[in-house]
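Practice problem: predict the structure.
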Amino acid sequence: MSDIEEEEVGEERDEDVDVIGEYEGQRNEKCQRHGIGRALLPNKDYYEGRYNQGLRHGLGLYIFKNGARYNGRYSKGKKDGIGIFIYPDGTKYEGEWKDDERHGYGIYHYANGDFYEGQWRKGVKEGLGCYYFKETGAKYLGLWMEGKMNGQGQQVTKNYRYHGTWVDNLPYGKGCFSFSETKVIQHGFYLNIMGSDIDQGGLDEEEEMTIHPVWRPRDITLFSASQLPTEPKPLEYPSDVSRSPSPEPTPPPSVDVYEKDFFKDIAQYDKYYQDEKLMWQTDKWDTEILEELKKRAEHHHMSEEEEFMHEGTLFMYSIEFNNFFLL
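Answer:
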């Protein structure tokens, strides 16, 4: 699912105070939203959190009228830093953001039980990542480009592991299969063959044509790590697209308009962010949040899928790709 963007609603500035939406909270000497506050927007979206000179900045919670919600860090009005976005259908992204896009390291949980964990760039999967297929239990571990499996990678199943290269989500070219029980390697290559699927409904010619990967075996040898392809490595980007630092803390407002602690009467919103409340109630830097989540995961009884996720997290941080690939 593509990201759900917040409706374009302008923030208050100078003489536009009290014109857009309902706001309760702190302001600065220019009467801009500044400090801690909450707002009910004209489109019925809701935000509570930190502001800086009229813009969302720092930790905040944004609840959409359709049930989606974002809980995490903002910088100058945009999602930036560590944050969690939950969509109406139950899909969820947990990780780094930059300039309102998924960017850096993150985990995306799909409604069907699949999940992706790894690098993101400008809103799409790009770099080193792992995709888990819930239905089959298979995993793809390798490189991504523009949201697709592209480059060196491995397909891992219960009985075998394929090492090779992917092009637009399909294996292509030279590769090899290793089998855990027989301790042998089957060498060969994949061909992508165009075929047609005849449908009684009468599809267009272009829609009938599909690409099928076909494996051509050539040789079988005893297992030897030296015969396996080089392991994929994380992509490195120039400094202009590197991850964003944590936003600086919002300076205290010069004018305090509080008459009560209104955060005590928002129990009705608890149901929207039970698990994410930790990020709102604390003002920790991103690294401290990640460390705390790791510690909580270590003491939690993990299912098979959770163990794989935890293993993947350690892999992504240590970049010890070889150890992570061990069954």
